Amino acid sequence: MEYHLKCYDCGSVYGADAAFARCKRCGSILEVKYDYATLGLPKGFESQKPRHRKYLPFYPVKKLVSLGEGESGLVRAGYIGIPADEVNLFLKVETGNPTGSFKDRGSSVEIAKAKELGFGEVCCASTGNMGLSIATYADYAGMKCTVFISRNGNREKIHRIRKAGAKIVLVDGDFNKSIETAERFAARGGLFLCGDYHYRKEGQKSVGFEIIDQSKKTPDYVFVPVGNGTLLASVYKSFLEYRRMGILGKMPKLVAVQSMQCDPFVSAFKEGREIRHIKPRTKADAIAVGFPTFGFEALTAVRKTGGDATAVHDNAILWVSQKLKKHMGIGSELGGAAALAGFFEMRGDDMRRFDGKTVVAVITGDN
Ligand code: F0G
Fold first, then answer.
1. Fewer beta carbons under 10 A from the terminal one: N or C of the chain?
2. Which of 101, 175, 297 has the most ligand 1 atoms within 8 A of CB, as the residue to mutate?
3. Which fold has domain 103-197?
4. Interior CA angle at 301 toward 134 and 303, to 5°?
5. Which CATH architecture best describes the domain 73-102+200-363?
6. Cβ(332) to ligand 1 under 6 A?
7. Between β-strands 30-34 and 192-193, what pairing exists: parallel, antiparallel or unpaired?
């Protein structure tokens, strides 16, 4: 589909061949703006099997760099240690992706874009999973890759990123400091900057498309964990696009979940104010993000869908993650189980709220 890039804040417009991640004028994040009149869905699109590749017409690339990402299961949740029979609870399980998280969906588009634009080298900042995914896809595409990660980051993830062939730069400071460092490195070296920017957001839309295509009844609620807020913004955009195409009627309510030990998004939502940078103290390292890049977009998504937000104590997330493994055999890291923990938390506050409703929780990763 034809598109241009537009600054989220000041509205500056750039062509589709622009290779930078932030607005040149104000430094804000950019958005991919499609000309939907040029969107040609193939005949029989709606009856095609739900899988990442099916949604190529909704991505800003001609071809994906694919390692078999997506096409994850939407499974009916059985007993997970807390009875919830009155709720039609489903889990969108992203842990079977090639590198163990939903991040591979974004990487397949980002790396394809880097290739289309003629780059041979990429870099990114990450709390771990995104770095592992980008390193793996870059290696597959024959590109060099550098990953910036906090010195306090998850050791095992750092080891795996190195094994995937990337150079690691350990950063003194949190994830937001890693982002700043990666952005400077990319600008100085003329590299393609991967990470939580507009192209990744497009690739991750397939989580939302698949949820709609796999659901017999449109979900009433979709619970999504929030680190940078990109996944939530991606799912929202997929719903908007499906509605525009007449494929989706009623919009599911989006519910954002964070750890209580790192909740800049949830506290801003609850207090009706702007998001402020906080120091992450959570053990859920994947979502240890003190200031979410896509926070404003994610706030809009939650508010516009009439959704909600909740923060869950690390110990409660761990408990849910363990129950998920024990009762359903589904492994999850803390960030990966946070959305489900958020559902149980909210249901605990109001036992009847979700009765008779169809609820989806995204289990985002297991590294
Ligand atoms: N779940 C997992 C397993 C993640 O790795 C992340 C983010 C999220 C949820 C939150 O998604 O950032 O789009 O709101 N991980 C990033 C990383 C920050 O570097 O791997 P988000």
1. N
2. 101
3. Rossmann fold (3.40.50)
4. 150
5. 3-Layer(aba) Sandwich (3.40)
6. no
7. unpaired
Q: Which atom of ligand 1 is nearest to the CA of 231?
A: 13
Q: Is 231 in the pocket of ligand 1 (CB under 6 A)?
A: yes
Ligand 1 contact via 287 beta carbon (within 6 Å): yes
Closest Cα to residue 141, out of 112, 98, 106? 112
Residue 243 DSSP class: H
Question: Is the minimum distance from the CB of 252 to ligand 1 under 6 angstroms?
Answer: no
Q: Is 126's C-beta closer than 6 angstroms to any atom of ligand 1? A: yes
210: alpha, beta or left? (left if phi > 0; alpha if psi -120 to 50): alpha
Q: What is the pTM of this model?
A: 0.98
pLDDT tens track, the chain, 367 positions: 899 999 999 999 999 999 999 999 999 999 999 999 999 899 999 999 999 999 999 999 999 999 999 999 999 998 998 888 899 999 999 999 999 999 999 999 999 999 999 999 999 999 999 999 999 999 999 999 999 999 999 999 999 999 999 999 999 999 999 999 999 999 999 999 999 999 999 999 999 999 999 999 999 999 999 999 999 999 999 999 999 999 999 999 999 999 999 999 999 999 999 999 999 999 999 999 999 999 999 999 999 999 999 999 999 999 999 999 999 999 999 999 999 999 999 999 999 999 999 999 999 999 9
C-alpha–C-alpha distance, residues 177 and 287, integer Å? 15
Which residue's CA is the nearest one to ligand 1's atom 5? 286
**Residue 130 CB–ligand 1 contact under 6 Å:** yes
Helix (H) or strand (E) holding 256: strand 253-259
Identical fold between 73-102+200-363 and 103-197:
yes
Domain ranges of the chain: 3-39, 73-102+200-363, 103-197
**Ligand 1 mean position to 117 CA, how many Å?**
26
Q: Is the CB of 340 under 6 A from ligand 1?
A: no
- The residue whose CB lies within 8 Å of the most ligand 1 atoms, and thus the one to mutate among 29, 94, 103, is 103
